[in-house]
Each structure stands twice: as C-alpha cells, then as structure tokens.
Design a protein that fits this description.
By secondary structure, the protein is an alpha+beta fold. It contains eleven helices and nine strands. The strands form two sheets. A six-stranded antiparallel beta sheet has the order 1-2-8-3-6-9. Strands 5-4-7 form a three-stranded antiparallel beta sheet, with no helix packed on it.
Length: 306
C-alpha cells in the first residue's frame, strides 16, 4: 500500500459506539530523509520532529513501527529507543515527540482515535501514559489490520466509520495486551500466553496447574493473577469460551449435539448438554430452537445472543 494520511471528522460515531477513528495512515520514512516525508499530508498542529519541539494532541494515537528504529519521548516516559516491531501510544494533553533514526528510517502505521471508551480505559488504569511503549514484535496480523483500516478509510463509505472504530479497538487491544509488553510481570505474561492457548485449544482438556507450570508460575499465583486480569478463574474462562463457540455452532450450523460436543472436547452429548444448560439456563436444543424462532420474527435477534 502506498503512503497515505487521512484525517476524518468524528461525526457521531464516538457518541454512538464509544470510539471513533479520526485519522490513520502509513508512512515510509527512508534513511536520511526529512520526517515526516510529506508534511503537506498532515494538519499543522500534527507536525513536529525531535529537533522541532514537542507536540500536544487532544486525541489518542497508536503508532506501530513494522521496520526500522528511532526514538520516542513524552512528558512521562522520558526518551525511549523504538525498535523494529515496537508500538507506542500517544495520550491527550501529554506532550511527546518521536522520529526515526536517520541511519535506518522506519515504516510507520498510525491510527488516531477519540471517544469515551478510551477515556474510561485511561481512568481505570488500563491505558497509562507512563506505560506507553510496547513490543508486539513483527506482527503480520497488526499490519493486516492497519491495512484493512486504511482500505476502509480510503473507500469513504458511510458504514465504514463504525467498522473502523471497532477495528481501532481491536488494534488497541492487540498492542496493550501484547505478550512482549515491557514491564509486564512473569505472572502477567503467563496469563496472556494462557489466554491464547485457551482460545486456540477449546477442544483440549487442558490442566490448568500444568499450564501454569509450563509458563514457570506457581498455580496459586497464576490463578490469582488470571482472575485479576480477566475477571474469571482459568477454568471458568475456558468454559465460557467453549460455551460461546457452542452457541455459534448451534445458531449458525446444523451440527448435531454430538458433533459440537466432540469439537469442544466433551465426553458425550449428555455431558455437553449439562454444561450448556448450567451456563445458559436452557438445554442446547431448546436454546437453538428459541433463538431461531426469535430470528424469524426479528432478523436482528441472531446477532444479540448471549
């Protein structure tokens, strides 16, 4: 994708959906070139450089460096080296500046966002200006998501703004919950790895104590930290993921209860049905019939299942 920088009006997306994308772009800064390479693409209040002083925005930004390296500095982080595969966050009313090293240049993907959801995350300490630098590594998934965001922005269709907002929140989550977050404790890294394993292996009978030991953390510490970060104990988290997948299969496929039970690692359709009823309050066949009947009368109902 060629370089671009788009700045968009907020409209009512932030009010309705809690977040809105107000800018996004891709910048290839060649070694030895001025930064940013095409200043005319950016509003005057967005221009700056390490030698030109500091910038203060009224919005949030995610900057992901997929190649090259440079430096980032803010009022609360001080100066930090930024390497290939690093990302950093910019916060409203916090001065900052950054630029690639002249010897290397860099490839920069950026998104600017605003909205009450981000303010709430900051207030609750999920987003912290003092922890603004992350190292998700070389991530094809992040590059693809930034590319999808750019295509939606360049298309300019009215419904794309909502998709962009949700994609922006996805990018934010991918960055801040990176397994390589600087300063994360051993327990936090273990939890993030475990979450990924639980999502990927829904049909496996994972033993949580063995999982904790695999990540080098005593189970009691692992379980406490897991619940603090996710709101659920590891077994509850795994079961909730299983039941969410079960609901998708019940609603959108013709798979039998036995087939769903086998996919999710249950001994039998009976054991699956008992677990589903405990989670949802209905037997799976009754839940499937009720949701499909509701969908026939209300086409939007199938997208609101719990």
């Amino acid at each position: 994708m060629n370089d671009f920088a788009l700045y968009l009006p907020d409209g009512d997306t932030a009010t309705l959906w809690g977040a809105a994308v107000t800018a996004c772009g891709l910048i290839h800064a060649a070694p030895g070139s001025a930064y940013p390479p095409q200043p005319g693409q950016h509003p005057g209040d967005h221009l700056f450089g390490l030698r030109k002083g500091r910038r203060i925005l009224e919005s949030y930004q995610i900057i992901y460096i997929s190649s090259g390296c440079g430096r980032f500095e803010s009022a609360v982080t001080g100066e930090v080296e930024i390497g290939n595969g690093s990302a950093f966050l910019l916060f409203p009313n916090v001065w900052h500046r950054y630029a690639p090293h002249p010897q290397t240049g860099w490839t920069e993907h950026f998104i600017e966002m605003t909205g009450p959801t981000l303010d709430r995350l900051k207030k609750q300490g999920v987003l912290r200006p003092q922890n603004a630098v992350f190292t998700p590594g070389e991530s094809p998934q992040l590059i693809e998501a930034f590319g999808d965001l750019g295509r939606l922005a360049l298309e300019g269709r009215s419904g794309n703004r909502i998709q962009m907002a949700m994609l922006g929140m996805y990018l934010l989550a991918q960055v801040i919950y990176s397994n390589h977050e600087p300063g994360a404790t051993q327990e936090e890294r273990a939890v993030r790895h475990a979450e990924a394993r639980l999502r990927e292996e829904l049909g496996e009978r994972l033993k949580m104590k063995a999982l904790a030991l695999e990540f080098g953390v005593p189970y009691d510490r692992f379980r406490r930290r897991f619940k603090a970060l996710t709101g659920l104990a590891p077994k509850q988290y795994h079961r909730k993921l299983q039941m969410r997948r079960a609901q998708e299969r019940l609603l959108y496929t013709e798979h039998s209860l036995g087939e769903i039970a086998e996919e999710l690692g249950f001994d039998s359709a009976f054991h699956f049905s008992a677990a589903f009823k405990e989670h949802s309050g209905q037997a799976p066949s009754h839940w499937r019939n009720a949701k499909r009947e509701s969908a026939r009368h209300d086409p939007g109902a199938s997208s609101r299942h719990d």
